[in-house]
Amino acid sequence: MHLKKIISIVLIVISSFAQGEQKTNETVQPNFIIIYTDDMGYADAGPYGDPLIKTPSIDLLVETGQAWTNFYASASVCTPSRGALLTGKLPVRTGLYGDNMAVFFPGSKKGLPHSEKTIAEVFQDHRYATGMFGKWHLGDAKAYYPTRHGFDEWLGIPYSNDMDWEVDGINLSNIFTPPQDAAEKYRQVYPRVQKQIFNPDINDWQVPLIYSQRQLDGSFNDIELERPANQNLITQRYTRESIRFMHESVKAKKPFFLYLSHSMPHVPLFSSPEFSGKSQKGIYGDVIEEIDWSVGQILTAVKALAIDKNTYLVFTSDNGPWLIFGDHAGSAKPLRNGKATTFEGGMRVMTLFSGPG
Q1: Mean pLDDT score, 54-72
Q2: Most exposed: 132, 163, 223, 275, by fewest CB within 10 Å?
Q3: Does residue 247 have an active-site annotation?
Q4: CA dist., res. 347 & res. 345, Å (int)
Q5: pLDDT digit string, tens, across residues 161-206
Q6: In this structure, what CATH number is given to the domain that contains residue 160?
Q7: Domain contains 150
Q8: Active-site residue, from 114, 137, 266, 328
Q9: For helices 282-304 and 56-64, what crossing angle results, to 10°?
Q10: What is the pLDDT at residue 21?
């Protein structure tokens, strides 16, 4: 199934409930949750065949829903794929790709065009609470923050967790900016990049953690909470804030759209102390098992709030695994290749759907 088709299904469901609402005050609008991972491989979780990574919560989504084995992202890298998720349009129709590379880098002058209507804005039109928690990567200037594109609030990082980093005096972002010879420059620093990726320290990456909220008067409250973001605890923080948003929405008797966009398992890999060294597949397995924990926390909250009969959840990834990082990357088996290619391993992603009915 293609990404555009699932967005169409969601919009049809919203419209049907909106029409029903005109007929009776008893109609309850459904809630929608998208859990989005970064560079997760097609074969990284139990339902898709990895015996060494324990993912009981992701497995539960299969038991209560469906595992889609023929689902394609709209691109094999972050920015264009994420733009397609929110707009339902191919990247070529929105211009969502970098100036000299396929993704946006810190300081990019571009972002998600305001002429494009996002699924969050559609939800807002139907009086939904809309919250995003996690990686954005559709423009790091304030004018392009998620709160300018239909989200009531956002807590997360503006781009990939490996950006805002200097190697031997060379800023990684500048490597991909003309007139640099990007391929040659990256070839020169790659051994150092790889070494530090395999032994990461959160202080090596000056990626900010930002909170943004749309005010009642239409203004915005934008706060940089941390720089660098504490990536060891970032999966837990996204999860905690997502659950807080769900509770507040239900308390306010508002249907909600939650977009939980994990920074992981994009390199550099970080996990909390509770999960470090616990899996049978090294740090990569630790990260996936913590994401599975996050899924479990969301499912537990849905049940505790008594909205399980009225909530739809989609779990998927922006693209395939970044195979050049070896055991710090996932697996797309039996598919060929991975991220940044148009082979199946780069475009075909693990996708699970769960909901009532």
Answers
A1: 93
A2: 223
A3: no
A4: 6
A5: 999 887 666 676 666 655 556 566 667 777 777 788 899 999 889 9
A6: 3.40.720.10
A7: yes
A8: 137
A9: 50
A10: 45
* Torsions phi, psi for 28 (to 5 deg): -110, 120
* Total residue length of the chain: 357
pLDDT value of position 269: 98
Would residue 239 count as lying in a domain? Answer: yes
78 is catalytic: yes
Mean pLDDT across 230-247:
99
- Choose, from 78, 262, 266, 328, the residue flagged as catalytic: 78
Q: Tokens at residue 310, please?
A: 């009225």
> Residue 101 — pLDDT band, cuts 50, 70, 90?
low
SS (H, E, C) 236-259: HHHHHHHHHHHHHHHHCCCCEEEE
Instruction: Report how far apart the first and last C-alpha atoms of the chain are (Å, whole number).
Output: 19
Q: Report d(CA 12, CA 76) in Å as an integer.
A: 27
Of 337, 340, 334, 296, nearest in space to 318 by CA = 340
- Domain of residue 202 covers 3-23+31-291
For the chain, give the mean pLDDT: 89
Can you tell me whether residue 210 is helix, strand or coil?
strand
Question: Residue 205: CB partners within 8 Å, gap ≥ 6?
Answer: 161, 162, 163, 164, 165, 228, 231, 268
Q: At what angle do helices 78-87 and 3-21 cross, to 10 degrees?
A: 30
* Residue 144 within any structural domain of the chain: yes
Residue 11 clears pLDDT 60, i.e. is over it = no
Residue 196, pLDDT score? 84
Torsion of CA 39, 287, 263, 304, to 10 degrees: 120
Residue 321 lies in a domain: no
Q: What is the helix (H) or strand (E) element at residue 352, kind and residue range?
A: strand 351-354
Q: How many domains does the chain have?
A: 1
